[in-house]
Amino acid sequence: MCLGLFSGSVDKLTAAGVILSGAAAMDMQVEIYVLLQGARAFKKEIGDNADKLAMAENPALKEEFMQSLKNLNVKTWVEFFREAKAITDVKIHICGLAGKIWGGEKLEDFIDLADDICGIGAYLSSAEEADINLFI
Amino acid sequence: MTPEELKNQSVAKTVDARGTACPGPLLEAKKAIGTIRSGEVMEVLSADEGTKVDIPKWCTKQGHEYLGTVDESGYFRIFLKKG
User: Which residue of chain A has the CA closest to B33?
Assistant: First the structure.
């Protein structure tokens, strides 16, 4: 599976995390390419702090959304990603341009989920080979 | 299998995932399946309606045999045999 992760909002990242968990349960090999807004969420100074992330849809309902996730015992998006990486082969690539936009030049500028910094050619090569392509 | 047959068989592992919402039960099943041997039966307890559909599809994909689901009050007992 190849996922283009453009979004850096907590609701869409959570959706990506749920999908990633399903992929992990099915032993899928997953390549994630983190683009533009997504790269910000992977910065170390953002960490796993939802207060620093926006909602893509219904921004006025963010508090209700976050509280419901908590009540339902749903993991944070970072926890979903981390767990999936522990179970199956998940590689997370940060787009070099996206990193620079948010002041991240090196791999060390991002949380330890990130495996490398790459270019758009790597994304398209993966997309061409994958049986499932998603863009969030 | 009838609900009675499902309930009466010997179960090698019971996974209680009633405290989690989707995708929790599926992931719990995935983690637990590695702890039992081929041919043994595992039971997944879930309060999430979606798990009833997820587990059979997951079994097909992973080569396990879905045996059936028993409805209890407020949760489901889903049985499968490891392939």
Answer: A25
- Asked if A85 and A101 count as a contact pair (C-beta separation under 8 A), the reply is no
Q: What is the dihedral angle through the alpha carbons of A29, A23, A50, A38, rounded to the nearest 10 degrees?
A: 40
Domain ranges of chain A: 2-135
> Is A25–B26 a contact, with Cβ atoms under 8 angstroms apart?
yes
Q: Which residues from chain A sit within 8 angstroms of residue B20, using beta carbons?
A: 73-74
What confidence tens digit (pLDDT) does each residue in A51-94 have? 999 999 999 999 999 999 999 999 999 999 999 999 999 999 99
CA dihedral A17, A50, A135, A32 (to 10 degrees): -60
Q: Is the CATH number 3.10.100.10 carried by domain B3-81?
A: no
Q: Is A70 exposed, middle or buried (0-12, 13-18, 19+ CB in 10 A)?
A: exposed
What CATH number is given for A2-135 in this structure?
A: 3.40.1260.10
Residue type, A67: Q
Query: What ipTM was reported for this prediction?
Result: 0.85
Distance (Å, rounded) from C-alpha A97 to C-alpha A105?
Answer: 9
Model pTM?
Answer: 0.92
